[in-house]
């Protein structure tokens, strides 16, 4: 399921913000009209690839903020699990120092609505509800613009870590198009020449949204 070109699903959930504070009813709606959002899912707390990604986004967090983009992460772990992981130093496998919000999708509805939940519910012969998979999120990443529309998404399987540089490149491309009306070719980097759109559909779409 692709969400590109559609409004990002709305949600309210508990989250840990500033690496310390647990809040209820966290929502991406607070950023609409103010900033873009890089919203990414990771499978589980206290794992191996996941902390490398969370630290990588933290290391370049100011680059996102300078571009007017907030970074928010989410997994199906509880807010208490997030909090405990945030207290553990990096050298011990923790994510201490990560300051952007970590959303707790304990009901698994956010992952489901964004199309990144692995596994499904089913019933066994006794009529008991069982899970047919791990019921955790794939490595989904969504760039959501100021109007709440998804402009980019990528979903990786569990073993495949993502590129923070590529996320920044896509953000730069979106910003360039919004500011100059020029489209960005393959491997385009900030500061390089872009291209004028040869059809009106692109500009009409963005002006309508």
Automatic annotation (TrEMBL):
Residues 2-176 form the Thioredoxin domain. Keywords: Cytoplasm, Disulfide bond, Oxidoreductase, Peroxidase, Redox-active center. Gene3D superfamilies: Glutaredoxin. One of its GO terms (cellular component) is cytosol. The active site is at residue 50. Pfam families: 1-cysPrx_C, AhpC-TSA. PANTHER family: THIOREDOXIN PEROXIDASE (PTHR10681), THIOREDOXIN-DEPENDENT PEROXIDE REDUCTASE, MITOCHONDRIAL (PTHR10681:SF128). Thiol-specific peroxidase that catalyzes the reduction of hydrogen peroxide and organic hydroperoxides to water and alcohols, respectively. Plays a role in cell protection against oxidative stress by detoxifying peroxides. This is Thioredoxin peroxidase. It comes from Anseongella ginsenosidimutans.
């Amino acid at each position: 399921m692709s969400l590109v070109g559609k409004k990002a699903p709305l949600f309210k959930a508990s989250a840990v913000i500033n690496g310390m504070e647990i809040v209820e009813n966290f929502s991406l709606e607070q950023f609409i009209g103010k900033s873009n959002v890089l919203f990414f899912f990771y499978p589980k707390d206290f794992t191996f690839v996941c902390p490398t990604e969370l630290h990588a986004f933290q290391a370049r967090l100011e680059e996102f903020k300078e571009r007017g983009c907030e970074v928010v992460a989410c997994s199906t772990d509880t807010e208490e699990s997030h909090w405990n992981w945030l207290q553990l130093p990096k050298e011990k496998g923790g994510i201490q120092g990560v300051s952007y919000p970590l959303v707790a999708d304990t009901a698994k509805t956010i992952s489901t609505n964004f199309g990144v939940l692995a596994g499904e519910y089913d019933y066994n012969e006794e009529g008991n509800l069982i899970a047919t998979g791990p019921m955790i999120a794939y490595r989904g990443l969504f760039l959501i613009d100021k109007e709440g529309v998804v402009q980019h998404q990528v979903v990786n399987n569990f073993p495949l870590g993502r590129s923070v540089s590529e996320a920044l490149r896509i953000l730069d491309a979106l910003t360039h198009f919004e500011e100059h009306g020029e489209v960005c070719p393959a491997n385009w980097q900030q500061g390089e020449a872009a291209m004028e759109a040869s059809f009106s559909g692109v500009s009409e779409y963005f002006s309508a949204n």
